[in-house]
Amino acid sequence: MEKPSANLYESRHQCFVEMLNIIQQQMQIFVAGNIDEQIEQYNHLSDRFTSIQEHIDHLNSMLSTQDLAVMNVDDRVEETKSIIKEIIDRQKLLRGILERHYDELRTSMKSVKEQQTVRNAYYGMDSADQIALYFDEKK
Questions:
Q1: Residue 24 DSSP one-character state
Q2: What is the 3-state secondary structure (H, E, C) of 90-110?
Q3: What is the separation, in whole angstroms, between the first and last Cα of the chain?
Q4: How many angstroms separate the CA atoms of 116 and 112, rounded?
Q5: Nearest to residue 45, comparing CAs of 25, 74, 30?
Q6: Does the reported pTM lie above 0.85?
Q7: Distance CA 87, CA 72 (A)
Q8: What does the alpha-carbon distance between residue 138 and residue 31 come to, in Å, rounded to a whole number?
Q9: Is the dihedral of CA 113, 115, 118, 120 positive or negative?
Q10: Residue-wise pLDDT tens digits, 62-78
């Protein structure tokens, strides 16, 4: 008969597999080059990732210290460890992609701001269409 903790191990392993799949989906959004159109899907995937992390924390709290010691010698754990390492590597790669994307956005926004400043300086586009005039009725 399997120990109840074996089910927890398997559930935990499946959570890590799902986390890896989520990161792969997030990376596909960037590779396709359409993050602006799919930002909601990206955010939904991020929320799912966080939810799974919380579930893993819950599973870990259910495992006793003895279970965790036994888990370190289990063959399935080696597979889980390699998945965790891959998750970490892909998170670093995804973080780099996100930073480059935000840098591009920041540069674009700065360029737009500079263009607005130049346009306003030369063409006075920010000035109101109405000009206040004062008429002195005594003259």
A1: H
A2: HHHHHHHHHHHHHHHHHHHHH
A3: 108
A4: 6
A5: 25
A6: no
A7: 19
A8: 73
A9: negative
A10: 876 656 556 555 667 78
